[in-house]
Design a protein that fits this description.
The protein is 38% helix and 15% strand. It has 280 residues and is an alpha/beta fold.
Length: 280
């Protein structure tokens, strides 16, 4: 019998004037957020702080990762006005730091790299002082797409490894562990952009396998690490094999420090963009 969701992983529903304002700005600008689509447990906390992680290029994905709540089906046409809408929302929300992520778009020749770049350009045009972090798919490892990203120069480039090598193909059948590492390494070797990656834990990995992944990431030049508990979105998704205890996160913090990470966010409800500005 599976363990029940521990109390420390539950978050209350918060509905205030501030959270309603954030939702209104997003709706007015016809924008998706990963907060809503991926059922992020920190959504309300972030909304109360006037922040959200923008989900660009539609809300359906061309890949079917077995842990993700975003649906996989035929993708939508790109909205060429979306970069401007994102920039306007960033300005209206008064953000100083913003995170932009996307569904995977293997149907596009560049995987959507130019669309990411246009979002960065539009944000910097309207609000030059805002720091921009992007959380991208692997672009199939295409160096031309990565060069497009490098030219746009986000403040932080994030690409999640998601899980350890031993679990990777089970969780991400259409992705590749080595390719994800190569993407991070290419950005690091060809720019001065900070690089970031994250893992979900609770999919059956061991501490030894986590340590191996830490070493792989630091060897790829990864600067920033995030780790949080995997929570099953539905019975159709991968099961949770383990709920890590709060004290085990302290062990993981010690491991991350020993591996040489400059910055890290590690905790039960940590997600890729959670409190992202605090580790800049």
């Amino acid at each position: 019998m599976r363990e029940r969701l521990p109390a420390y992983l539950k978050r209350p529903i918060i509905d205030t004037e501030k959270t309603r304002t954030v939702r209104k700005i997003l709706k007015t600008n016809c924008l998706n957020t990963v907060c809503e689509n991926a059922r992020c447990p920190n959504k309300n906390e972030c909304y109360t702080k006037n922040t959200a992680t923008f989900l660009i290029m539609g809300n359906v994905c061309t890949r079917n990762c077995r842990y993700c709540n975003i649906s996989c089906s035929k993708p939508e046409l790109l909205d060429v006005n979306e970069p401007l809408h994102v920039a306007k929302a960033v300005k209206e929300l008064g953000l100083k730091y913003t995170v932009i992520t996307s569904v995977t778009r293997d149907d596009l020749p560049d995987g959507g790299a130019e669309h990411f770049a246009n979002c960065i350009y539009e944000i910097k045009k309207l609000t030059p002082d805002v720091k921009v972090e992007i959380l991208t798919p692997d672009f199939k490892g295409d160096e031309s797409a990565l060069n497009t990203i490098i030219k746009a120069h986000p403040d932080v480039f994030n690409h999640n490894i998601e899980t350890v090598r031993a679990v990777f193909k089970t969780a991400r059948p259409q992705a590749d562990y080595e390719r994800s590492l190569a993407v991070l390494k290419y950005i690091k070797n060809n720019s001065n952009i900070l690089t970031k990656s994250g893992l979900m834990i609770g999919l059956g990995e061991t501490f030894e396998q986590i340590a191996e992944t830490f070493n792989d990431l630091t060897n790829a030049g990864c600067d920033i690490l995030t780790i949080g508990q995997y929570i099953q979105p539905s019975k159709a998704h991968l099961s949770v094999e383990k709920y890590y205890k709060p004290e085990e996160y302290e062990i993981l913090k010690d491991m991350a420090k020993a591996a040489g990470f400059k910055h890290y966010q590690i905790g039960p409800l940590v997600r890729s963009s959670y409190r992202a500005a605090e580790i800049m």
